[in-house]
């Protein structure tokens, strides 16, 4: 007797009402699972969009001579939907501006984003483990330079319904712990942002 015959013998002796209840339970489970999957898809896309918007904002700071650690009207805190009690700069943003100093580039870099993991924290925020790829105009040639990083980006619900905002950003660069070990699964990839507009 094969498995199909065993299932048929177990299924058909059931009373009609019992079979109907079983079918109903299966349908409900499928609907719930589908609803959960849709909700997850929307959340991941909202997270990815928020991070991409934030990174684009940081890219623009490289050509903004009026944005410094002492005064910056266009810090990431100025993004739409931001929480009013958030710090002026994220940790990575502060490091970026400190490293840039008074040097302002002629063209903004272009940052690509890969979201690998999103988890909910106890205080209702979301933590995303993100791969970052930054394309810049090469200093000593006509081509481009490319650097990568892994960052932990914390997001909170935006004041705009259905959206998120970045509230903290920490680089794993120089740390021994690899948050993507052993193999990451890509949940979100940013849209093709093109290349920097390099002066020739």
Mind describing the biggest β-sheet?
Answer: 5 strands, antiparallel
- Summed up, the domain count is 1
* Rg value: 24 Å
Fraction of residues in helix = 25-40%
According to DSSP, the number of beta strands is 5
Determine the N-to-C terminus distance: 77 Å
β content, as a range?
Answer: 15-25%
Number of helices: 3
Task: State mean pLDDT (0 to 100 scale).
Answer: 84
Class by alpha and beta content: alpha+beta
Label the overall shape: elongated
Low-confidence stretches: none
Give the strand order of the largest sheet, numbering strands 1, 2, ... along the chain: 4-3-2-1-5
List SSEs in N-to-C order. HHHEEEEE
Keywords: Membrane, Transmembrane, Transmembrane helix
Transmembrane segments: 21-39
What descriptive keywords fit this protein?
elongated; 200 residues; alpha+beta; five-stranded antiparallel β-sheet
């Amino acid at each position: 007797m094969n498995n199909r015959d065993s299932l048929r013998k177990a299924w058909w002796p059931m009373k009609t009402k019992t079979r109907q209840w079983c079918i109903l339970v299966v349908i409900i489970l499928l609907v719930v699972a589908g609803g959960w999957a849709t909700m997850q898809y929307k959340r991941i896309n909202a997270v990815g969009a928020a991070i991409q918007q934030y990174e684009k904002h940081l890219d623009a700071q490289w050509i903004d001579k009026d944005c410094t650690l002492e005064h910056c009207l266009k810090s990431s805190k100025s993004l739409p939907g931001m929480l009013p009690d958030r710090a002026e700069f994220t940790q990575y943003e502060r490091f970026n501006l400190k490293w840039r100093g008074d040097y302002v580039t002629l063209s903004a870099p272009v940052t690509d984003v890969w979201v690998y993991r999103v988890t909910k924290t106890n205080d209702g925020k979301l933590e995303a483990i993100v791969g970052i790829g930054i394309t810049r105009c090469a200093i000593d040639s006509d081509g481009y330079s490319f650097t990568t990083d892994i960052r932990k980006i914390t997001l909170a619900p935006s004041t705009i319904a259905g959206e998120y905002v970045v509230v903290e950003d920490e680089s794993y660069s120089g740390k021994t712990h690899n948050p993507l070990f052993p193999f990451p699964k890509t949940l979100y990839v940013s849209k093709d942002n093109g290349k920097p507009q390099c002066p020739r």
